[in-house]
From TrEMBL:
<dbReference type="InterPro" id="IPR007247">
    <property type="entry name" value="Ureidogly_lyase"/>
</dbReference>
<dbReference type="GO" id="GO:0000256">
    <property type="term" value="P:allantoin catabolic process"/>
</dbReference>
<dbReference type="InterPro" id="IPR047233">
    <property type="entry name" value="UAH_cupin"/>
</dbReference>
<feature type="domain" description="Allantoicase">
    <location>
        <begin position="194"/>
        <end position="338"/>
    </location>
</feature>
<dbReference type="GO" id="GO:0004848">
    <property type="term" value="F:ureidoglycolate hydrolase activity"/>
</dbReference>
<dbReference type="GO" id="GO:0004037">
    <property type="term" value="F:allantoicase activity"/>
</dbReference>
<dbReference type="InterPro" id="IPR024060">
    <property type="entry name" value="Ureidoglycolate_lyase_dom_sf"/>
</dbReference>
<dbReference type="InterPro" id="IPR008979">
    <property type="entry name" value="Galactose-bd-like_sf"/>
</dbReference>
<dbReference type="InterPro" id="IPR015908">
    <property type="entry name" value="Allantoicase_dom"/>
</dbReference>
<protein>
    <recommendedName>
        <fullName>Allantoicase domain-containing protein</fullName>
    </recommendedName>
</protein>
<dbReference type="GO" id="GO:0006144">
    <property type="term" value="P:purine nucleobase metabolic process"/>
</dbReference>
<dbReference type="Pfam" id="PF03561">
    <property type="entry name" value="Allantoicase"/>
</dbReference>
<dbReference type="Pfam" id="PF04115">
    <property type="entry name" value="Ureidogly_lyase"/>
</dbReference>
<comment type="similarity">
    <text>Belongs to the allantoicase family.</text>
</comment>
<dbReference type="InterPro" id="IPR005164">
    <property type="entry name" value="Allantoicase"/>
</dbReference>
<dbReference type="GO" id="GO:0050385">
    <property type="term" value="F:ureidoglycolate lyase activity"/>
</dbReference>
<keyword id="KW-0456">Lyase</keyword>
Length: 539
């Protein structure tokens, strides 16, 4: 097997557009190991670099952030690893950081591809050499590339004859896992689907590749975070190559764990390219980017869901997420559908492993008032997405997650928290109109006309021309028990168009929980109150 040694200074040039297939953040795990007497093998797959534990000792000896076996092995030690997702291997980083005098002198790597296989053992007949035996040195990273074409689900790291390795990183390209149905929406940017972060303007505290990892992470360290900027008008950005050309629908921007360092606002652009470009040579700003999410405020420590614009009938291959002026984002999800052409061209389809997106959707009927027909996604209600139409009334268990500027003080002798003036009442009735502002209570029957495909029809919209309007859910009625208590309700809003009728271009739909009240701004068109039963809730 031919291989090449890569100088550490060329790491970004060689591996920047690849995915670390073995990372525990991606789901990589140790299956079995021959010996881990001094230091456990799980360290090999950790995201963070190895740190020195010099001077620290455990019951078996000195402690190391890595894998270390006993001395005097007559053959070799091995560690079997299941990759986080199957992929085509490009190369390896075998790091002996802080092992000096006890490092593994040599190593090799075997692998095989079978996403349906149970965990193999060391003698499995399917093991094939990917990287032959190579020399290692103390306290250093060793980078190697291998010829293209080696696909793997499992790898076996062998070290000769024994010793220590701090980190082992397998770099390559994901073999995509996408829904079999081309009409099914999924996360086109997700690393499991084959999405890649190809370029970032800055990744001082957290790398851009984290944006498309599964889950919501464990701390600020596994997101994308840029350094602080003091320049007026500064912005940072990350470019994501989608797993396949797709029709975009919605985006999720998650600021989980970023409480005092989340971006002030963001915007999203999209692009269609027919061929690969070298993003490192000034190509990012030269492309014909289309705005699909105009600049909008973000909040701390939570998921933000936004419907996209300018996406109907257009295939896109890349998205660029721009943050103003700087800060941190945990994850980006770009929900959409692939084209039928792409669906027929050799993509692995393992339905039960695909990223899942489930939404109640809203089908607009053709009638005189709405003048059109389309299907609208229903997204979870967040203050930022709802801001063009009104305010969200809710408390925050973690005060750092409240929108910036909300005043929070203790109340009731310290037994409560007061979130001050989340919305102000407003009315502009003409003098002598005989109208007043007041509080009313509605008792609503749950929506029952949800079709088998998860859609319901929007048949009417209303507005209040002289007041804003507040809705706060109250739960079950006094003195009675409900068999199916409502957990969510449907909120549909839009602004007025040039003809003073509902503007379909600004139409948005949300599911609100019973912990959220809403305030419609004066003149905002909205669907009458619509309760969703527990059995019909979106997930």
């Amino acid at each position: 097997m031919v291989f090449e040694v890569v100088n550490l200074a060329k790491f970004s040039e060689v591996f920047a557009s690849t995915t670390e297939l073995s990372s525990c953040a991606l789901g990589g795990r140790v299956v079995s190991v021959s010996d881990e007497f001094f230091a456990e093998a799980f360290h090999l797959l950790l995201v963070e670099p190895a740190t020195s534990l010099k001077g620290q000792f455990g019951p078996n000896g000195a402690l190391y952030s890595g894998w270390e076996s006993r001395r005097h092995n007559p053959t070799f030690d091995w560690c079997i690893i299941k990759l986080g997702t199957s992929g085509t291997i490009v190369g390896f980083d075998i790091d002996t950081g802080h092992f000096n005098g006890n490092e593994a002198p040599q190593a090799s790597v075997d692998g095989f591809y079978d996403p349906t296989s149970e965990d193999p053992d060391k003698n499995d007949a399917r093991w094939t050499e990917i990287l032959p035996k190579v020399n290692l040195g103390p306290n250093s990273r060793h980078l190697f590339t291998v010829p293209p074409g080696s696909r793997a689900t499992f790898v076996k790291l062998n070290m000769y004859p024994d010793g220590g390795i701090a980190r082992f990183r397998v770099y390559g390209h994901v073999i995509p896992i996408v829904p079999e149905d081309p009409l099914k929406s999924f996360d086109l940017a997700h690393v499991y689907a084959g999405g890649r972060v190809v370029l970032t303007s800055d990744q001082h505290f957290g790398v851009g590749a984290n944006l498309i990892l599964p889950g919501r992470g464990k701390n600020m360290g596994d997101g994308w975070e840029t350094k602080r900027s003091r320049l007026p008008g500064h912005k940072d950005w990350a470019i994501i190559q989608l797993s396949t050309p797709g029709y975009l629908e919605q985006v999720e921007i998650d600021t989980n764990h970023f409480k005092g360092n989340f971006p002030d606002s963001c915007e999203v652009h999209a692009l269609h390219l027919d061929k690969e470009v070298d993003w490192r040579v000034g190509r990012a700003e030269d492309q014909d980017w289309k705005v699909v999410l105009p600049r909008i405020k973000l909040g701390p420590h939570r998921q933000h869901f936004f419907q996209l614009e300018n996406v109907a009938g257009v295939l896109y291959t890349h998205v660029k997420v721009t943050i103003h002026p700087d800060g941190g984002i945990k994850r980006v999800r770009v929900i959409g559908r692939r084209s039928r052409k792409e669906a027929s061209e050799g993509v692995t389809t393992i339905e039960e492993e695909s990223p899942k997106v489930k939404d109640i959707q809203l089908a607009l009927t053709k009638d005189q008032s709405l003048k059109n027909s389309k299907v609208l996604p229903v997204l979870p209600l967040t203050p930022e997405a709802f801001a063009p139409f009104g305010q969200v009334i809710q408390a925050y268990g973690d005060h750092a997650a409240a929108p910036k500027g909300i005043k929070i003080t203790p109340a009731n002798g310290g037994t409560a928290d007061k979130f001050h003036k989340l919305s102000l009442l407003a009315q502009s009735y003409p003098v002598g109109a005989g109208a007043t502002t007041g509080i009313s209570v509605y008792r609503c029957q749950p929506l029952t006309d949800i079709a088998m495909d998860g859609t319901c029809q929007l048949k009417e919209l209303e507005r209040h021309a002289f007041t804003n309007q507040v809705f706060v859910p109250m739960g079950k009625g006094f003195g009675e028990e409900l068999t199916h208590p409502a957990e969510k309700y449907l909120v549909v809003v839009t602004k007025s168009g040039m003809d003073d009728k509902p503007d379909l271009n600004s139409l948005r739909a949300f599911t609100a929980t019973t912990a959220q009240g809403i305030v419609y701004n004066t003149g905002i068109w909205h669907r009458p109150i619509t309760v969703l039963e527990k059995v019909c809730r979106s997930t």
